[in-house]
Amino acid sequence: MIGSNLARYGFATSAAIVMLAGCSAGSQSPGTPLGAMQETRGRSWMAPGARRSDLLYISEQTGDVDVFSFPKGKLKGTLTGLPDPQGECVDKSGNVFVTTFGGQEILEYAHGGTSPIQTLQNPGEYMEGCSVDLANDTLAVINFAPMSGSGNGGVSLYANASGSPTVLTDPNLLLGYQLGYDNKGNLFLDGVNASRQFEFAELPNGSTTFKEISLKVTIATPGGVQWDGKYVAVGDATGGKVYRTNGAGGKVKGTMTLSGSDGIFQFFIHGTTFIGPNVDSTTAMFWSYPAGGNPTKTLSGIADPFGAVVSAAKK
């Protein structure tokens, strides 16, 4: 499973990434066409009326995305046949984007839908997180590393969440993990550098040059990055912490402890609820945000969970 191997934690060499990536999602080779995956899996389904409620999407690296009612957490559907689904993000219409680690595709689903309404290509890149700039619909996808086994991580940007991407590489980012837009269109991302140390950077709105940011905390493993309405939240995936930062300033304004967490790489903050899929277990947990502490709810029976996002129902 990708979530448990050394590549996910940033200790593998670039050459080793290619070998390790093939170990996930039923051992399909990187770039397996989505159609071929669908032929061997069950059909996607959604409960009648599910689209009328807010929905929580949890990606399973085994090839499914489970869909729950939010905040109750009742299973309402399953999207199947995805090649190693990873990070998730949502646009202002409630459409959900799902990246695939080795599938070279980003799949877009309408709120409560069971089939992709769009498939975007990101050739030659292993992918993790994604984020949508709600002001102009630009979709940003973080590239973990090139599939060639050489080169650095970076981002692929899709104007209007469509077409072919503009690919930008960060020379200081060996492996890219997660990313998120703030309310001004600035893009923040994390990962590890060539020394396997935590790396945090900003791609300012309108720029093509990354600016490195020094956070005054020690982060063992890069985790999620998300604007919470006031601060940029940055996670330590294996340290069970989330730091609320002022973004480009690099100052930590608060620390949230996730008691009981077990490897959270891509979380989602929805108002005062923090949702974290536990990569090294079969659960996803809810915490009060930004208080943290003990989880307030646990969803069980999720195979190798990775990403989370809430899509709001249209009113």
Chart the SSEs and their pairings.
Elements (H helix, E strand, L loop, with lengths): L5 H4 L4 H8 L12 H5 L6 E2 L8 E6 L3 E6 L5 E5 L5 E6 L5 E5 L4 E5 L8 E4 L3 E9 L4 E9 L7 E5 L7 E4 L5 E7 L5 E6 L5 E6 L7 E3 L8 E6 L4 E5 L4 E5 L6 E6 L10 E3 L2 E5 L6 E5 L8 E3 L5 E7 L4
Antiparallel strand pairs: 1-4, 2-3, 2-25, 3-4, 5-6, 6-7, 7-8, 9-10, 10-11, 11-12, 13-14, 14-15, 15-16, 17-18, 18-19, 19-20, 21-22, 22-23, 23-24
CATH superfamily annotation? TolB, C-terminal domain
Strand content: 35-45%
Unreliably modeled segments: 1-41
As for the CATH topology, it is Neuraminidase
* Silhouette: globular
Count of helical regions: 3
* Mean pLDDT figure: 89
Order of strands across the main sheet: 1-4-3-2-25
Number of domains: 1
Largest sheet composition: 5 strands, antiparallel
CATH architecture call: 6 Propeller
Would you count the extended β strands for me?
A: 25
Keyphrases for this structure?
single chain, 315 residues, mainly beta, Neuraminidase, five-stranded antiparallel β-sheet, 3 helices, 5% helix, 42% strand, globular, disordered N terminus
Provide a concise account of the structure shown.
The chain is built from 3 helices and 25 strands.
